[in-house]
Amino acid sequence: MKKFTVTVLDTTGIQPYIFGSNRLRENIGASYLVSQATDDWARNALNTLKAKINQEIYAFDPEQNQPEAKPRIEDDGLAAELVYAGGGNTILLFSDRQYAVQFTQILSKRILEEAPGINLVAVHQEFDWDSQSLYHVVQNLMKNDLDSKKRSRIPSAPLLGLGVTATCRTTQLIAVKMSDPFENDEPYLISTEIDAKLKVVSKANDKLQKMFASALGSYEFPLRTDKMGRSEGDSSYVAVVHADGNGLGKRFQNFGKDKCNRDYIIAMRKLSHSVNQAGINALIKVIKILVKSIEVDTDGKRKVKGKFEIKNNYLPFRPLVYGGDDVTFVCDGRLGLELAAMYLEALENEPIADGKIKACAGICVVKTHYPFARAYQLSEDLCRKAKSFVKDEKKLGKEDFSALDWHLAASGLSGSISEIRDREYKVPAGSLSMRPISLKKEIDRDWRTWQAFTKVVKHLNEDEDWKGRHNKVIALRDVLRQGIEATQKFLKNYRIKDEQLPTFPESSGGSENLAKDGWLDRVCGYFDAIEAMEFYISLREESDADLPTENKTAE
If you compute the radius of gyration of the chain from its CA atoms, what whole number of angstroms results? Predict the structure, then answer.
């Protein structure tokens, strides 16, 4: 009999930890610390344990891409083996429970010292390698023990201060020092948590620059949101984009099912690595297209498609959470829709160990200094809206597909996305918004697609009837609120060509009626396009539609 202990690690409260600040540098440091806590630091903790107990340990490294590599805990007398780290979870095997406990203590101590605010959750279970399924043990730990421990964990209740203490501007906890000067920012009071985040910003930026060096060329990622293309006289907007794969959790479960223990370990390593690589490759493609879109004008200024000047040498784009199917990035507000669609398309074209990935994205465009945590929360809600749209369509017989949803907040935000839609986009004629939309046309009668949407935006920006006629476009927007009859009168009175609006792709169901009426099935096809006219810049040339896969094909 070979008795081992399985350990599963997870973290809680990650979203508020990363996105709870309005300062991009703090978000960058927080994201880096979270990625370190359950990945690199876990490997380091294993090495510390190795030195402490003087026994062999295997800390599997996915960068070497050798999922079948030896030594193995069941054959080679190891004290511990890292199964895999991915999707926010880390799974390990130990030859003795006391080693599992010691490892957890080593890792917990480092997190407390170097990343205060991150909450680590660990569960352990002994199992027999020869008679029990590692797959079932891990699933049980994740579904029952881990969830139970998360729910039963006593929330941290730190002392918020006394009458003689100063307060951190970000966390409202006790301040311990002033921040170091950065560019034109004045130093401000910070807590130990914010101090830890700011200390690693340089490391986080170096890691990101190195990872995407092949696509970046001479450009750099910005450390401030106001470095993302803002220029004098322009309104300054930033887009927060959150994307997440469709049903990846179930695919991980199914991929490891009905396999012997070692085959399960190999399968999880392959799938985890391929998903991580797919996300990175997709971002590389996006960055390459963005870099290619930057042109030098006659005045020597570098502009994105001639539309707006970039700040110094900074790319108007920065990934915050990356690797895997769960990705969050920020960019200039005028690029949010296009970059999100480009990322989803690139991700679809990346192979993983069990096929291809479909994903959804939520895009929230807000003023540059709008509270970041609120913008991120809305982007996450919009991503969920897109996922619900996919699920509803799948119930009607569609295959899985990618989708996106967005909100353009020219002013403030009040209420949830559902409340905003009910308040601002519901009229007697139906819904002014066609969102969410699918990335690609899945069946012949689809019309709520990215292709259709962008075609209409392009026509409104470039056609003779509409180009440069701001008041006319605004008048159309107001008329669309009144329904089909008012829209038809508008087209006749303004002598619009053929008395119809820009047409949707011919294969779209009911596209002729949509162009003449502005509405189809109580959904308006043009209101979203009018709103997005100043927030959409097409970056791709025809030759960029399908860039080659950047790295290795998944095994």
Answer: 26
